Amino acid sequence: MRRLRALVPFVLLFGLLGSFIAGAAAPSAPVEIVASKRAFTPETLTLPQGEPATLVIRNDDEDLHSFVPLLLLQRTNVQVSGNGAPEFNETGFVRVLIPPHGRVELRFTPKAAGTFHYICDLPGHSMRAQIVVK
Ligand SMILES: [Cu+2]
Fold first, then answer.
1. Ligand 1 mean position to 37 CA, how many Å?
2. Distances in Å between the alpha carbon of 118 and those of 30, 40, 71, 76, 95?
């Protein structure tokens, strides 16, 4: 019992520390991109530079779509979840294929400020939109 009591302050301290660290590292609310009727919505979205971001890409179509960020995610650590098929090369994340009615989540921290276009590169799909990092 005495031992247990001696542990209480440590448990409290680590609990506090844990919630503090979790709070500091918590990414901002997820930002959603919807692929529907062969277009991305919204046309422009904004992410804060240097802050962890969660990008959710939802495919509402019966078609397969891809999310191909041009430059935004080069040499950036990207965590991918959901039911998409991601592709990587030596520069890092290249694209993710999203099945009909599929959903993908990308977690990353935008490094540089700027306007970054992304496309769907499937044949015949002229889908293009942009992410502004500032
Ligand atoms: Cu497409």
1. 9
2. 18, 9, 9, 15, 10
